[in-house]
Design goal:
Blueprint: H1 5-27, H2 33-52, H3 61-76, H4 81-109, E1 119-121, E2 127-129, H5 135-163, E3 166-173, E4 176-184, E5 199-203, H6 215-218, H7 224-233, E6 245-251, E7 257-263, E8 267-272, E9 275-280, E10 284-288, E11 300-302
Parallel strand pairs: 4-11, 5-10
Antiparallel strand pairs: 1-2, 3-4, 3-8, 5-11, 6-7, 7-10, 8-9
Helix pairs in contact: 1-2, 1-4, 1-5, 2-3, 3-4, 4-5
Active site: 185
Organism: Cohnella lupini
InterPro entries: SpoIIGA
C-alpha cells in the first residue's frame, strides 16, 4: 500500500487544528493563531513520522499522551495544573466525540447488501469491522461531527446559565403559603411609583381560588381598575384581601401606559442551591392573566432587587 506522507501531514494538520479550535470554544479560550498552528503542526508531524520512520516506541500509549499534552501546552499555555488538566480533558473529550461521530455517520451513510458484509471473524472468535472511507466523506463527516458537538455544548451551556437564574420561592400571605419556581429577570425594573416597592410578576391562576370569582380569567381582557370598580359597586369590602390590592402603572411594549393588579404579601422567601435563603418583605406581586412560560418551567418572575435582600432573618414587613 502506498502512503503519501505529505497528504497524511496536511490531513492531520487540518483535523488537529479543527479539534484544537473546538476545544478552545468549549473552554472559552482564545489562543493566538500562532499557538493554534503550532499545536496542530506538532500533531501532524507526529502522525507523519509514524509512517515515515519505523520507531516502535512512537506507537506506545505514553508517547501518544505526551504528544497530546505538548499540543495542549503549545496551544493554550500552562496556566497552572488545574487549568492544564481541564484543557487536556476537554481536548480528549472533543477527540472522542468527533471520532465517534465520524464512525457513526460513516456507518449510517454506508450502504451494503448485507449487514455481515463489513464483518469478519478471527480464528479465535474475535469480530473485525472493516471501515473504509474516502477523503471527501471523511472531511464532511468530521466537520459535521464537530458542528454537532459544538451545538450540543452551546445548548448545554445556555441551559446551565438559565438554571442559574431559577429560584424556588414561597409566598406567605395571611394564613396561606404558596411555593413555586421563579425566574430572575435582570431586566425587570417595575416599581410602585409611590412607594418605590419592587414588583414581581406571578401567574394569577395560582390564586384562582383566592381571587374573586372570575377574576383570574378576566384579567386577560378586562382592565384591573374595572375589576376593582365592580368590587366597590358590589359591596365586596369584606373580601379578605381587599386592603392588599394595588394598581401599579407600567409601560407596555407598544409604549402605552397600563395598569397591573398587584397584591401585597406578608413576605416572599427565596432559596437556591448554593445560596443562602432570602426573605423579602417590601414587595408587590403583580398578577398576569396568562402563562409566563410556555413549557411550564416557571410561574413567577423575580425582581432583581429581591436577590439583593437580606438573609431570611429580615425584619417584619411594613405596610405599603
Amino acid at each position: 500500500m502506498t502512503v503519501y506522507v505529505d497528504l497524511v501531514f496536511f490531513n492531520n494538520l487540518a483535523v488537529d487544528g479543527t479539534v484544537l479550535l473546538a476545544t478552545a470554544k468549549v473552554r472559552h479560550l482564545r489562543p493566538t493563531r500562532t499557538r493554534l498552528f503550532s499545536g496542530a503542526i506538532l500533531g501532524a508531524l507526529y502522525a507523519a513520522v509514524m509512517f515515515w520512520a519505523h520507531i516502535p516506541y512512537l506507537y506506545s500509549f505514553g508517547v501518544k499522551v505526551m504528544i497530546s499534552l505538548f499540543m495542549v501546552l503549545l496551544t493554550f499555555g500552562y496556566g497552572g495544573p488545574l487549568q492544564l488538566a481541564r484543557n487536556f480533558c476537554a481536548f480528549y473529550l472533543v477527540n472522542f466525540a468527533t471520532l465517534g461521530g465520524v464512525i457513526g455517520l460513516s456507518f449510517l451513510l454506508q450502504s451494503a447488501d448485507s449487514p455481515w458484509g463489513g464483518m469478519s471473524f478471527t480464528p479465535d472468535g474475535g469480530l473485525i469491522l472493516k471501515w473504509q472511507m474516502q477523503l471527501g466523506m471523511f472531511i464532511v463527516t468530521f466537520l459535521l461531527s464537530v458542528w454537532l458537538f459544538r451545538s450540543s455544548s452551546e445548548t448545554r451551556k445556555k441551559r446551565q446559565e438559565l438554571e442559574q437564574l431559577f429560584w424556588e420561592i414561597e409566598i406567605k400571605l395571611a394564613d396561606g403559603s404558596w411555593k413555586m419556581r421563579a425566574l430572575l429577570d435582570t431586566g425587570n425594573r417595575l416599581y410602585d411609583p409611590l412607594t418605590r416597592i419592587p414588583v414581581m410578576i406571578m401567574e394569577a391562576s395560582i390564586w384562582r381560588e383566592e381571587l374573586p370569582a372570575g377574576w383570574c380569567d378576566r384579567l386577560k381582557e378586562v382592565a384591573p381598575d374595572q375589576l376593582l370598580s365592580e368590587m366597590a359597586n358590589q359591596s365586596m369590602e369584606q373580601y379578605p384581601w381587599a386592603d392588599r390590592l394595588r394598581l401599579v402603572p407600567y409601560r407596555g411594549v407598544n409604549g402605552n401606559t397600563r395598569l397591573m393588579l398587584a397584591v401585597k404579601p406578608d413576605a416572599v422567601l427565596l432559596s437556591k442551591e448554593g445560596h443562602p435563603p432570602l426573605q423579602v418583605n417590601r414587595v408587590l406581586i403583580g398578577l398576569d392573566g396568562g402563562t409566563l412560560s410556555s413549557e411550564g418551567t416557571y410561574r413567577a418572575i423575580v425582581h432583581p432587587d429581591m436577590a439583593l435582600a437580606d438573609a431570611a432573618s429580615s425584619a417584619p414587613s411594613q405596610p405599603a
